[in-house]
Amino acid sequence: MTDKYEIPGLDKQTTYVILGSSGVLILWSWVSSTIAAGPIAAIIITYGLYIFYWIYGWKTRNPLVLRLVIFGTVAGILELVTDHYLVSTIDSLVYPGNELMVWSSPMYMPFAWSNVLLQLSFVGVLLTQKKGLVIASIILCIAGGMYIPLYEHLAKDAGWWWYQQNVSMIFNAPVYVIVCEALISLSLPIIIYFSEHNKLQHTVYLGIIEGFWILASAYIAFTIAK
After folding, report:
1. Per-domain boundaries in the chain
2. pLDDT in tens, 86-126
3. Is 204 within 8 Å of 74 (Cβ atoms)?
4. What's the Cα-to-Cα distance from 199 to each of 46, 81, 114, 195, 212, rounded to whole Å?
5. What is the SS3 assignment for the chain?
6. Which positions ≥6 away from 102 have C-beta within 8 Å?
């Protein structure tokens, strides 16, 4: 990796920080699953990472991180619609319910999505720099189809959420969820590419588009892979 990047905010330090935080999230999720830590562990890591990303973006004046936090927050809030679809419409997703809820989701869920979208989007930016937009999208589609469902698998034993056993499953993750999250990841390089090359307000609009794409991906995936 060189020290010069075409994208403002894409530097070695930030790369190590974002990839390192992804490792922290995986480790935290694994430990939580081994000790059945319950929702409090999800709340701590979610808000901890979310606040950390904001502080890092502001203190380092990193425009890329700030864009990705804004993008992830907007998309994460709209993901509440998808959660409601999974919980109440198709009766698949189950939350413990012994925590603060907004609509059908735990209060922390939009921020959990923001964190993961930021991490995947940042990897998408790196891949786009090295491989181009098309190859980056394909690689991230495959990686996202494996990366996010890892949390779905660990979440059940951690007591964060789980799925009804009325669909095809791979470990604790439904096949349709794997397909859905692959489709979500597929969209990120092109979405972030447009964000980088437009005014900051466009990041909000693109977050809205991503939020609707998450819902569309869930519908498409459940239809073809349930």
Report:
1. 12-225
2. 999 999 999 998 899 999 999 999 999 999 999 999 999 99
3. yes
4. 28, 27, 20, 7, 21
5. CCCCCCCCCCCHHHHHHHHHHHHHHHHHHHHHHHHCCCHHHHHHHHHHHHHHHHHHHHHCCCHHHHHHHHHHHHHHHHHHHHHHHHHHHCCCEECCCCCCEECCEECCHHHHHHHHHHHHHHHHHHHHHHHCHHHHHHHHHHHHHHHHHHHHHHHHHHCCCEECCCCCEECCEEHHHHHHHHHHHHHHHHHHHHHHCCCHHHHHHHHHHHHHHHHHHHHHHHHHHC
6. 80, 109, 110
Query: In this predicted model, which residue has the larger pLDDT, 98 or 33?
Result: 33
Phi then psi dihedrals of residue 105, to 5 deg: -125, 155
Residue 181's identity, in one-letter code, is: E
- Number of residues in the chain: 226
Structure tokens at 35: 């000790």
Q: What pLDDT does 15 receive?
A: 97
pLDDT tens-digit map of 41-75: 999 999 999 999 999 999 999 999 999 999 999 99
